[in-house]
Amino acid sequence: MAARGLVSIVMSTTSPDTQTPSQIARAVFHRIFNERDLSDPSAFWTDDSVDYFLAAGRTVRGATALAAWFEDLFAAVPDWHLEIENTVDDGDRQVVVQWHATGTMTGAPFLGIEPNGRRIEIRGVDVIRLDEDGKVDSNTVYYDGAEFARQVGMLPHRDSPLDRLSLNGFNTVTRLRRRMARK
Questions:
Q1: Which of helix, strand or coil describes residue 57?
Q2: How far is Cα 97 from Cα 95, in angstroms, rounded to an integer?
Q3: Is residue 159 predicted with pLDDT exceeding 70?
Q4: Alpha carbon of 22 to those of 71, 76, 145, 165: distances in Å?
Q5: Residue-averaged pLDDT of the chain
Q6: Torsion angle of the four alpha carbons 7, 143, 122, 119, in this order, in degrees rounded to the nearest 10
Q7: How far apart are the C-alpha atoms of 35 and 47, rounded to whole Å?
Q8: What is the pLDDT, as a whole number, of residue 12?
């Protein structure tokens, strides 16, 4: 049976009351990231849903805006692939999803970042609270924003000469400010 068929059966034959939060999250992630199916954002989110993308410094509210966020991500990184590594839930309405994502910035700009063909590989965690209907009420997304910036070329590679120079410059300024404050 095709994966879409299986996910559709799971989502249509069980209610949010009989699915665990992990099962709901896995089905939603599958439809968004594997199938790229954002045709019905209300299947995942409500107008009150909110995602906090902490590393990006963005808060996105509402089903339509959340679908647009992911459409923009897929337009920027056409080969985006996200794999769930682990889920943990409280058996009620909260679930934590640990993931690993890869892709190449070859498409449209994303968050003001022009595509440059750089490869991205990041790990992250979503902390999701579901509403009574099994839709995302809130989601806080954690990943290493500095590492993302290094990979796309906005920051120097870790431990490179430029990275060490930047760190030394920062520390020199910090020491000078400390000395000035003591006077």
A1: coil
A2: 6
A3: yes
A4: 24, 28, 25, 45
A5: 91
A6: 110
A7: 23
A8: 46
Q: How far is CA 83 from the centre of its chain?
A: 12
Residue 51 neighbours by CB distance under 10 Å:
21
Range 16-20, long-range pairs (CB < 8 A, 24+ positions): 16/130, 16/132, 16/133, 16/134, 19/134, 20/89, 20/91, 20/95
**Residue whose C-alpha is closest to residue 166's, from 182, 150, 148, 142:** 150
Helix, strand and coil percent figures for the chain, each rounded to 5: 40, 30, 30
pLDDT confidence of residue 15: 55
φ/ψ (deg, to 5) at 85: -95, -30
pLDDT (tens digit per residue) in 96-110: 999 999 999 999 999
CATH fold of 3-152: Nuclear Transport Factor 2; Chain: A, (3.10.450)
Question: Among candidates 128, 125, 106, 127, which has minimal Cα distance to 117?
Answer: 106
> Whole-prediction pTM value?
0.82
Token match 């949010």: residue? 16
CA gyration radius for the chain? Answer: 20
